[in-house]
């Protein structure tokens, strides 16, 4: 599916691409839209450190002491990537494990065919609790309503104000709505947003718990468990989410679950560090990268 970009939207993107987020962007009053596909980057000796510190202003990573310090002063000792089985990496993640798979920025489903290729699905839970919230009530108090207003449909999502996630999401939805009524169907029967809960079939907190994830149309999005898949054995993913939607989300720092082996095609979550890490790895000539290509399978 390909839709012509309106000239007014091109102008809007040209402006927002120039905006950068101030170091105080963890609070709503200082938020500006960031374009993580165009944000200037310099070559980095440690792409993981650079990606995390740019993605979350105020966070500091000290690889020499294996220490990560959050804006509120909380400190955690972290471990790097490990040579372990895929299921152990998923169930008992480290900070380094989160970068084991490099998130692909091309609009392709080829890489997800690799067994357990799940970039972004691997999460060290304590990192997210420290980055965002330890409790449901803390998360609830941070929420802001963000609305998709289409030609014939409307969808309301709740996103956290922390790290300006709500502003990034609002920019995504405004861009998608500007494509016109063809986009409306993807926001019907939405799977929702904030929900303090564990991931189905696990005891691990979902990123929905922190107000950083949204699910679009549950019927069009597709989900590996609903399609009868089992861990390590899923069937074909018949994607119905168009390039325009995925691109708009990725530009604002949201990754797409449709690029996972254990696919979740309705799911987008705010993980700008993975977008930046992918760009930095390509910049260091460690992998090829292409932004604006259509789906290949």
Automatic annotation (TrEMBL):
Give the signal peptide range: 1-28
Record Pfam families: Peptidase_M15_4
> Which keywords belong to this entry?
Signal
Report whether Cytoplasm shows up as a keyword of the record: no
Annotated Peptidase M15C domain ranges read: 201-270
Q: What is this protein called?
A: M15 family metallopeptidase
What is the organism of origin for this protein? Cognatishimia coralii
């Amino acid at each position: 599916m390909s839709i012509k970009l309106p000239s007014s939207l091109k102008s809007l993107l040209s402006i927002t691409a120039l905006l950068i987020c101030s170091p105080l962007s963890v609070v709503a009053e200082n938020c500006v839209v960031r374009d993580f596909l165009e944000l200037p980057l310099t070559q980095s000796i440690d792409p993981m450190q650079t990606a995390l510190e740019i993605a979350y202003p105020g966070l500091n990573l000290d690889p020499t002491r294996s220490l990560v310090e959050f804006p509120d002063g909380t400190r955690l000792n972290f471990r790097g990537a490990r040579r372990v089985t895929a299921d152990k990496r998923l169930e008992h993640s480290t900070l380094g494990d989160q970068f084991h798979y490099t998130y692909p920025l091309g609009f392709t489903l080829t890489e997800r065919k690799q067994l357990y290729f799940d970039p972004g699905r691997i999460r060290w839970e304590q990192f997210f609790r420290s980055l965002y919230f330890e409790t449901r009530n803390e998360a609830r108090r941070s929420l802001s309503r963000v609305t998709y207003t289409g030609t014939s449909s409307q969808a309301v999502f709740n996103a956290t104000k922390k790290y300006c996630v709500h502003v990034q999401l609002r920019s995504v939805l405004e861009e998608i709505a500007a494509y016109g009524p063809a986009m409306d169907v993807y926001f019907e029967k939405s799977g929702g947003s904030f929900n303090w809960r564990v991931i189905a079939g696990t005891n691990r907190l979902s990123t929905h718990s922190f107000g950083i994830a949204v699910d679009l149309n549950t019927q069009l999005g597709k989900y590996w468990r609903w399609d009868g898949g089992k861990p390590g054995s899923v069937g074909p993913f018949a994607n119905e989410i168009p390039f325009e939607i995925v691109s708009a989300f990725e530009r604002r720092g949201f990754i797409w679950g449709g690029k996972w082996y254990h696919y979740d095609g309705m799911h987008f979550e705010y993980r700008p560090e993975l977008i930046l890490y992918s760009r930095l790895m390509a910049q260091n000539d460690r992998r090829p990268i292409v932004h604006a290509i259509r789906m290949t399978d």
